[in-house]
Amino acid sequence: MAGPGSLYVTMQPQPGLPLEQFHEWYNNEHGPTRLKLPQIFTNGLRYQAADNQEPTYLAVYDVTSTSHLGTETYTSLRANRSSREAETIGQVDVQRYFWDRVLSKQSPLFVPIEQLTDEEAEGRMLVAVQLTPKEAANSVEEIQKWYGEEHMDMLSKVPGWLRSRLFKTSSLEEGQPTRFIALHDYGKTAGLGGPEYQAAISTPRTKELYAKYATMSSRRIYSLFYVFGPASRDLYNLSQLSAAKSTFKSPDGKTFTTNSPSPVIESYFTTPDGLTIPYRLEGNPDPKAPTIAFCNSLLTSLHMWDHFIEIFKANRPQYRILRYDFRGRHSIPSPPQPSTLDILADDINSLLTALRIPKLEALIGVSMGGATTLKFSLKYPSKLGKFIACDFNATSSPANTGAWKERIGIAETSLEDGSPGIRKLAGQTVERWFHPATMQRQDTVAWIRDMVSSNDVEGFRYGCQALWDYDLKAQMNECAVPGLFVVGEGDGKGALVKAMDGFKGLLGQRGADLAIVPKTGHLPMCEDPEGFWTAIGNFV
């Protein structure tokens, strides 16, 4: 039975294909589609030639078992490729190889590249050596023995060496003669021309091997320049494309990109319990730009931030901006599971992992998003620089739980005219949320009412349970992340202002400031985006 192996793909874009188009397609469509199959692919790495040879580009994917590469799950990716992928790959000279792993040796310092940050990973060196066995009857065995008994040990003495692996032609390549490829991982600086390396390639046994048993058919040196995650994130190459070339919608409708008028990626990530959750990435296209993330309230979508985001981008163009929908907005896991603040904080962590974002500059959340923001700062302090938690309570009450149960009953009941009960709930919710002055603006009322109405009813039932029974007050003094609390002046007719003023001093060693947005209610960033910016601008 086949074991772990590698999918090894060399690529040379043809002269007519712009490199930014090639990279954007590969980084935002091709690679993430494969990394969304963790049962097959454990990582995806892109390299560029460091030896001035062609093909210039290399992609290497470690696979859990090469047998998976013969299944429909994998082959259907190629069979059902998008029209854009078909057009783009038609302009690339591609060679694809399947390799079964034979041997592996690694340094105690080796860390799987996918576990490194981009800054740590980029620039790592890879030496790829292909060997063809000679006609001697025992050539295959002698090559394997040489690597296992001598060569890997000798290479391990080379400065910067991290890992060596030997692969042979996969059993999937029926009828193909056995060949070998050795992949040697080195740090960003490696002693490839030094005395230790020369000693490794000059032993008597090495000379005998090449004389009798093996021919080196190629030796390539590559530099790592991109590590895939399962979520598309390449705003930079997207920003270099025209509106026509940048606008793409995947065949399943779940991924969308455009550079009109600015680069935006909409796609999804998958949680450990199998739930797919949409996200939107935009703002500064520099891959090293710091990231600000936003958590919406229960029953709304990531688009509740739309008007405020335009103000934020104009005032803080240095940031990437990340938004996502809460679990339950669109669907629930199977079997159904009530949400908790722990789970919601874990979802943010899963999103950051999928996007390979090691740390957020700031996290901003409102209502259930505010409680989730505080929970994330307590559970994942090393992944957050600061936070803003808006219009939330640090603890729930039995009365609050009872109110949520009543709202579930309304949402799940069909009205006399046949319309869904969640439409009635939406009207009640917006009236409860908004300041009387906001209720006079019918466009704002209709915008949020329609957003609430479109929430999945079953998702609401399980999602709102995150707010039933929690208490963050006891943990707040442990918080090591600086925070700002914000509340609309009229939220709960002023009751929430008093509540947040009461617990703001519990945060960390110094407490948190409380900013009040005048003439707004539960969603100040929707009711008065400019006023909300005034409240938080000095903090971010």
UniProtKB/TrEMBL annotation:
Family to which the UniProt record says this protein belongs: Belongs to the AB hydrolase superfamily.
Lineage, uppermost ranks: Eukaryota, Fungi, Dikarya, Ascomycota, Pezizomycotina
Protein name (Swiss-Prot/TrEMBL): AB hydrolase-1 domain-containing protein
Any single Pfam family the record assigns to this protein: Abhydrolase_1
Domain AB hydrolase-1 as annotated: residue spans: 290-401
